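Discrete fold record:
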Amino acid sequence: MVKRKVWAGAMTGALMLSLLSGCGGAGNTNQAAEGNGAAAPEAGGPNTGSGENLNLRLYTYGTEEAYNWKHTLEAYKKVEPNVTVELVQLSEKGDTQEAFKKLDLEAASSAQMDILMFSDAAGYAQRVALGMAEPLDEFIAKDGYKVEEDYKVDTHLDGKVYALPGKFNPWYVLLNKNHLDEAGLEVPKDWTWDDFADYAQKLTKGEGAQKRYGTYFHGPQAGGWMEFLKLKLENQPQNAEFLKADGTSNLDDPNFKETLELRLRMEKEDQSSVPYTDMISQKLAYRTQFFNESASMLLIGSWMNTEIGGTDKVPLNFNVAVAPFPKNKPGDENGLTPVTTDYVAVAAKSEHKEAAYKFVRWYTTEGQLVQGKNIPAWSKVTSDQVTGIIDTILSGTKNPEKVDKESLVATLVASKASAIIPPATYQSEVYKAINEEYEKMILGNQDVDTTVKNSQERVNKIIDANKK
């Protein structure tokens, strides 16, 4: 069972947890829900009918630009006229690390909290362990559905559900189409990591400060963005994480070592990826690296859909195409990729848990279509609705005509998640340890074999220390 802490003792744990928070991404413009038939009452729940006016506070890292909050919350007001959902913006930049720190401090205070949004699985699991989120199983049973059937992401932790998933953001590869054309390269529809490395080498151009790299990897860093150390694990149907479903280490999987070798080869031998030291010392931003044409390919989550056509802040001056997450071998299943979601929870200390749950259920179903910023994790969404969302998203960018829509749609439709492994409550400790060992390797202080060995030993110690 998940250990639940009392609120009076949460301050120390929250402050410590803030230092371990990983960095995630924000989401992906405005479409009314259509063609949902009788699903609305089931998803959103009936009007409260009590006449009582409630104010619910929603804590989120999501910005207005990325989440269309004003329109979304106004739409909910039409569903529940007696309920006002107040937005508590934790980061104006959508910085999830900053948001997690502020959320932890708020949770340890006397502030009213009703609805919480977590940006990644590890952060979700850690905050469940701190007792921040209320189990939703009774509400779900009353509504008569199963999370693993109604959603594409299973959010169970130790047999209980503490959050429902919002968006369904598969990872993909953004490509500078102009650079591809210049190098005589086609937009990949089905490719391997060897192909990816070959493309990166052919797209690399110039020297010194003006050098253009084939690709940019935005991680790992500070125990976050760990997707970049699981490249050859994440496209497998099973065991796509550092830990297996039974809680044991998965670092003896050859694909972990091969991921390290790929990163080392591309940076040190091919010199086709932006150096890790540059990313850390210069605090590089992945948007800048791609849109300023410093890197020709960017492996990233599809929360970027709202930006790939260019925005006021980050204009687009070239043509963009999209390719699927690379495979390990040509014969492997196509489309398997990491998937990110928002974990939307009811705060354990909320005094209006049922009303908060009704909003969470509505937001993760009908609300996702109203918001129109992301492909929803709700499995009841039709393919026509998905295409409509994509059209709406691109129409909200500055230069949608510069985006190869065909490659984007094909990649999104083909994408699918590996079997979900519920994160351990100590997952951020695992991430931090592996990140530190990787840094030793990429900075030239130890070889690949030593990195694998040390990572295995440290992770096994963490697992043993947390056995119940």
Remarks:
- Residues 7-168+341-381 form a domain with the D-Maltodextrin-Binding Protein; domain 2 fold (CATH 3.40.190.10).
- Residues 1-50 have pLDDT under 50 and may be disordered.
- The chain has 19 helices and 14 strands.
- The longest helix spans residues 448-465.
